[in-house]
Design a protein that fits this description.
single chain; alpha+beta; seven-stranded mixed beta sheet; 22% strand; Glutaredoxin; 211 residues; 6 helices
């Protein structure tokens, strides 16, 4: 899956861009944690502590998107979660784990976005490939996280993503369109205004309205 261009845009300009625009930008100079598993480049950096993830984002035009992404698992409350149940809505996937500093830094923005966009039919799902419930649940309680996270220590959810969009750092945030295809990806800390702009563009597709 190859973006059509690598032009850089600020979040404000992104809001004015057409949905066919494809961009890589928003250099935030923030570190992202090693994902500690997976394949390819993930294995190369798994033992190096921190991996550069500067908050840059990539968008794919509708015609260039791959998928649908199929992610399912069990959340930390023991409930089954399958994003196929959300097909027709916009879905945001976020990889994280409790000891990851940028994951903690971005958590308040993700919580705000989940609450703000709930009425627009936007669903957020965390993917945690490191923590058991004893580590993950205090994180969720501390930040009052309103959306579920999959316990992905078996790496099945990340493996489902890897064949479509590379997950090279934690946190990574992926925005799926209503067909479950990858519309955008943020590598590293997801800055709130950037993620909102990316979600708004996908919501506006097919005549929809942003939140």
């Amino acid at each position: 899956m190859t973006p059509r261009s690598t032009a850089r845009r600020t979040p404000a300009r992104l809001r004015r861009a057409g949905v066919a625009a494809v961009a890589v930008g928003a250099a935030l100079a923030l570190a992202a944690c090693s994902s500690g598993g997976g394949s390819g480049s993930e294995e190369d950096v798994a033992d190096q502590g921190y991996v550069s993830g500067d908050g840059s984002f990539t968008q794919w035009a509708v015609a260039d998107r791959q998928g649908p992404v199929e992610v399912a698992g069990t959340d930390y409350a023991g409930d089954a979660v399958d994003i196929a149940d959300w097909r027709g809505d916009v879905v945001v996937l976020n990889t994280w784990y409790a000891a990851c500093p940028p994951c903690r830094e971005e958590a308040p923005d993700l919580v705000d976005i989940a609450n703000e966009y709930a009425d627009a039919g936007v669903h957020l799902l965390g993917i945690n490939g490191v923590d058991d419930a004893g580590a993950a649940e205090p994180f969720q309680q501390t930040f009052d996280v309103p959306y579920p996270s999959i316990d992905d220590r078996d790496k099945q959810a990340v493996a489902a993503l890897q064949g479509i969009v590379p997950i090279q750092a934690t946190p990574t945030t992926v925005v799926l369109d209503r067909d479950g295809k990858v519309a955008a990806r943020i590598v590293g800390l997801a800055e709130g205004s950037t993620l909102r702009a990316l979600i708004d563009e996908v919501l506006a597709e097919d005549g929809g309205d942003p939140a």
